[in-house]
């Protein structure tokens, strides 16, 4: 199916089957640096987008890609996670200046109850000015954490209710339900992906990469654009990236246990517009050796026992678009030996 879709699109502009989603958290100089961007740098980002890209609503992009309809080349979506008040104070005026529509993933049970969160009056005002709101769960939890004496089915029921309860509250407060869910901390596993997909949700992670009609809509990548990722020079490369057409990913899981030290990762690449010999892969910034056998890429990942979030990023230049790169990111999530999850 992937190959047929790709070959059909190759007769048109491959770039029209492509978009980039950015994710921010804080726009402030008084919040944790790892998840923050200053208002000045954020304004620089938005001006660059205004000058060079087509900023579109998330719903427009998702709908068109799901229906395999063309998008404008260089389409970008702006999203925020967690619904912090500084989005309203510092980011919204900049976005409004450019008439950019954007989406905030919120924990609705916290709205108006925590002083660092948006309140419903602010959300109502922003909604009238082009902002949409989507689901980040009622409680901002590590979804992969299993409680003491909790079965796998009980865990799945609990984390699913966390999503569904939040969606019902958003529907009640906003009058609409997008059924878009951003995984807290970007963490997910195969069971959760399958369950939410069966309920009609589109899932969003925090691993890197562009999206296309052939992407996995249960866990779409978004480029973090704050903290160490906020430099415009590196962000420019990501904004111009294309979604790498991969298939047959093995292992098709993201959650690992703390006893796993090595993993053999493999996937196939459609090389219609890719120079596979120029593929480069990295894990947490370190270059990986890989083998390419007729378009099947394989590599061994080591030191996977370390708790936290691991990420393999692979890039390869486009044949048709000389200065643009295809990008694929595969995340892995590892708890501590005690089963705890790191923030």
TrEMBL record:
E.C. designation(s): 3.-.-.-
Stored InterPro entries: Glyco_hydro/deAcase_b/a-brl, NODB_dom, Polysacch_Deacetylase
Subcellular location: Secreted
Record field: transmembrane: none
Domain NodB homology, chain residue ranges per copy: 74-343
CDD domains: CE4_DAC_u4_5s
The UniProt record lists the keyword Hydrolase: yes
Catalytic class of the enzyme: hydrolase
Main location: secreted
GO molecular function per UniProt: hydrolase activity
UniProt KW keywords: Hydrolase, Signal
SUPFAM superfamilies on file: Glycoside hydrolase/deacetylase
Domain of life of the native organism: Bacteria
Keyword Signal: yes
Protein's UniProt name: Polysaccharide deacetylase family protein
């Amino acid at each position: 199916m992937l190959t047929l879709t790709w070959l059909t699109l190759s007769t048109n502009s491959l770039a029209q089957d492509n978009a980039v989603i950015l994710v921010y958290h804080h726009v402030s100089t008084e919040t944790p640096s790892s998840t923050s961007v200053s208002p000045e740098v954020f304004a620089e980002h938005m001006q660059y987008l205004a000058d060079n890209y087509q900023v579109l609503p998330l719903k427009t992009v998702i709908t068109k890609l799901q229906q395999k309809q063309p998008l404008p080349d260089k389409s970008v979506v702006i999203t925020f996670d967690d619904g912090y008040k500084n989005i309203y104070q510092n980011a919204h005026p900049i976005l409004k200046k450019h008439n950019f529509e954007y989406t905030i993933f919120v924990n609705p049970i916290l709205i108006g109850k925590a002083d660092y969160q948006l309140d419903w009056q602010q959300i109502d005002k922003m909604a009238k000015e082009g902002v949409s709101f989507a689901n980040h769960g009622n409680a901002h939890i590590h979804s992969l954490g299993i409680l003491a004496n909790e079965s796998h089915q009980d865990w799945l029921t609990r984390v699913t209710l966390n999503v569904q309860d939040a969606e019902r509250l958003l529907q009640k407060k906003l009058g609409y339900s997008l059924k878009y869910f951003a995984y807290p901390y970007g963490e997910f596993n195969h069971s959760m992906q399958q369950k939410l997909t069966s309920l009609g949700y589109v899932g969003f992670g925090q691993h890197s990469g562009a999206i296309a009609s052939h992407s996995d809509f249960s866990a779409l990548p978004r480029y973090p654009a704050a903290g160490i990722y906020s430099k415009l020079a590196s962000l420019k490369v990501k904004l111009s990236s294309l979604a790498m057409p991969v298939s047959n990913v093995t292992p098709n899981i993201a959650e690992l246990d703390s006893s796993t030290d090595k993993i053999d990762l493999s996937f196939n690449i459609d090389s219609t517009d890719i120079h596979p010999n120029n593929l480069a892969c990295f894990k947490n910034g370190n270059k990986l050796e890989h083998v390419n056998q007729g378009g099947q890429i394989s590599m061994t990942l080591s030191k996977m026992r370390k708790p936290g979030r691991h990420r393999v990023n692979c890039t390869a230049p486009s044949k048709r678009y000389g200065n643009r790169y295809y990008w694929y990111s595969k995340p892995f999530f590892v708890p501590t030996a005690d089963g705890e999850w790191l923030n």
